[in-house]
Design a protein that fits this description.
Layout (H helix, E strand, L loop, with lengths): L17 H21 L4 E9 L10 H23 L4 E3 L11 H8 L3 E9 L3 E10 L4 E11 L3 H16 L12 H15 L5 H13 L4 H14 L7 H18 L4 H13 L3 H11 L8 H13 L3 H10 L7 H13 L3 H14 L3 H13 L3 H12 L5 H13 L3 H14 L4 H13 L5 H14 L4 H13 L3 H12 L5 H15 L2 H13 L13 H4 L5
Parallel strand pairs: 1-2, 1-3
Antiparallel strand pairs: 3-4, 4-5
Keywords: Coiled coil, Membrane, Transmembrane, Transmembrane helix
Organism: Marinibactrum halimedae
Protein name: Tetratricopeptide repeat protein
């Protein structure tokens, strides 16, 4: 069992000591901090939590893990609810948090003022709750408090934690007290765990519906049902629209039950985005802009992402660039880099990706940077990144791009081994088969022609995309079948291929069939439309590549 007291509670009343002097000084510093905070802009605050996965006896059990989960979530919920209702603070989304970095690095990256960290240690009867506050201004934890609470009755546990936070951390009173009893809270966190882990059968959702209707005054239970509905809208199934309709009707009922509630307003925003009702979502966003406790950065990025999906590429990019208030979060970089890739903004993509990897060194940021290096012909730098990524597991696009980078550096043997790895993991596409044939041709291997035949067979046996028509034409050209190659190329020209892509492949094909005039014309047009010169420099195009005005 724990000792049941905090360090401050061990000090005897009436005795003055060096320790008590330190405590008085610490309280004075904390008080000054909160006094200054009260007279400045709202503090950008993020709440993170962790729970101890072993109890004092170093044993684990299903019941123990469940207790830790529930207790940790209660503490996290209490902290977030208090922050949302504190006029001196703005709650920042946890989506952007990355484990493994120092708090100072996280604060700098996210542009946040406070990190509130809670940790929960439970045994059979009690949970020790430890809370600390890190501030970017001091680059240190200015507060560390802990206390032990019984967890047999979760209502008691929840209210004790709430009071402890308000008393020890000087936050504004939130009025966030649960009216629910222990059994209701245990049921709530049991269902919440299922929602968080996407364990949502129709039967479980029906149970949550009953639970929500039986606890109409418990907003957590009401929002939980909405989360369950919205989780089902992530499916591509035909039932998606039915779940979205349920979510829309339900969130409007919630709005009537909890008017002017920030969390409901945020929920309405997300539902309207899912419905692609940009106008309604804009109104929600405008209302949330007047709520001090909600960070709208992530919400705005979600809206821009939706508009991108709806085809407003250039408008969304322009709006993102001109925005003065959006923070450079992981989502921000991802959206910006994705649009620069789609728009062929190569200089901007390289600049964005370099900055992105610097502050968010993740799989996806490294992938975009490797792609940017490839666009600029810096294949050795791209290979270095791709080789880092392949160590994290198989990803088709990473392996394909690694094989291409190895090919363009003349390392054909390595490129062939990479293609072999793709074939071991997935069924080959027309593009994979064409890459095989071209690497083998560069190595002067006789098997090359058999792969060009496979490309043609694949295209004739499957419903192919626009780009596949160029693969088919190129395979015919490699086989010396000039007439068939030009017929397939003409079919590709009637498709919706980007002009620069069509000119690039036309250069390849006319180079192979020996049509110099057409090869040079398409090569010049490809360059004019933004294709970088290195993409035109292949072993079988060298004769005409050297005649281009590069």
């Amino acid at each position: 069992m724990f000792d049941g007291v905090t360090k401050t509670e061990e000090i005897e009343v009436g005795k003055f000591s060096y320790v008590s002097v330190l405590i008085v000084v610490a309280i004075f510093i904390v008080a000054c901090y909160f006094f200054v905070s009260a007279n400045s802009a709202p503090l950008r605050t993020i709440v993170i939590s962790s729970n101890n996965m072993m109890n004092l006896k170093n044993e684990r059990s299903a019941d123990f893990d469940k207790t830790n989960y529930i207790a940790s979530k209660i503490v996290e919920d209490e902290l977030e609810a208090i922050i949302v209702n504190d006029s001196k603070r703005v709650l920042v989304s946890k989506k952007e948090w990355v484990d493994g970095l120092s708090w100072r690095q996280e604060a700098e990256r996210l542009g946040i003022d406070e990190i509130i960290h809670s940790k929960v240690f439970c045994d059979d009867a009690e949970c020790k709750v430890r809370i600390s506050i890190y501030t970017s201004e001091s680059d240190s934890e200015i507060i560390k408090v802990e206390k032990v609470f019984p967890h047999k009755d979760l209502l008691v546990f929840s209210n004790l934690v709430d009071k402890f936070i308000l008393d020890k951390l000087f936050f504004e009173k939130s009025g966030h007290y649960h009216e629910s009893d222990d059994a209701i809270l245990r049921a709530y966190y049991s269902y919440r765990r299922k929602v968080d882990n996407f364990i949502l059968t129709d039967e479980i959702i029906s149970e949550i519906e009953v639970f929500s209707e039986e606890n109409t005054g418990f907003m957590g239970a009401r929002l939980l049902l909405l989360d369950a509905y919205m989780s089902k809208t992530n499916d591509d199934s035909v039932s998606r629209h039915e779940w979205l309709r349920k979510a829309f009707e339900y969130v409007n009922r919630l709005d009537e039950s909890f008017p002017y509630e920030p969390l409901v307003e945020r929920a309405k925003y997300k539902v309207n985005l899912a419905r692609r009702d940009i106008e309604a979502a804009e109104k929600n966003l405008e209302r949330m802009g007047n709520i001090s406790g909600i960070d709208v950065n992530q919400l705005i990025l979600d809206k821009l992402n939706l508009r991108l999906e709806m085809g407003e590429l250039e408008k969304v990019y322009s709006e993102l660039i001109k925005s003065e208030h959006l923070r450079e979060t992981n989502t921000y970089f991802h959206l910006k880099a994705k649009m620069e890739l789609m728009l062929d903004y190569e200089e901007e993509l390289l600049e964005t990706s370099l900055r992105w990897v610097e502050v968010y060194p993740s799989f996806i940021s490294k992938y975009y940077l490797a792609s940017a290096y490839s666009y600029w012909g810096e294949f050795m730098a791209a290979i270095d990144l791709y080789e880092q990524l392949v160590r994290e597991g198989f990803d088709h696009d990473v392996y394909v791009n690694l094989a291409l980078a190895q090919f363009f550096t003349g390392d054909y043997r390595s490129s062939l081994r990479t293609l072999d790895e793709i074939a071991r993991n997935e069924e080959s596409t027309a593009s994979d088969l064409l890459n095989y044939g071209e690497v083998m041709k560069a190595l002067n291997l006789e098997e090359a022609n058999s792969y060009f035949r496979k490309v043609i067979q694949y295209c004739e046996s499957n419903e192919i995309q626009d780009i596949d028509l160029t693969y088919k034409a190129l395979a015919h050209a490699h086989l010396g079948e000039s007439e068939k190659a030009l017929i397939s190329l003409q079919e590709a020209a009637q498709s919706e291929l980007y002009r620069q892509t069509l000119h690039l492949y036309s250069f390849y094909i006319h180079s192979l069939v020996g049509n110099e005039v057409a090869a040079l014309h398409n090569g010049e047009q490809a360059l004019k439309h933004g294709i970088r010169p290195h993409w035109l420099n292949l072993p079988w195009t060298e004769k005409y590549y050297n005649k281009l005005s590069i």
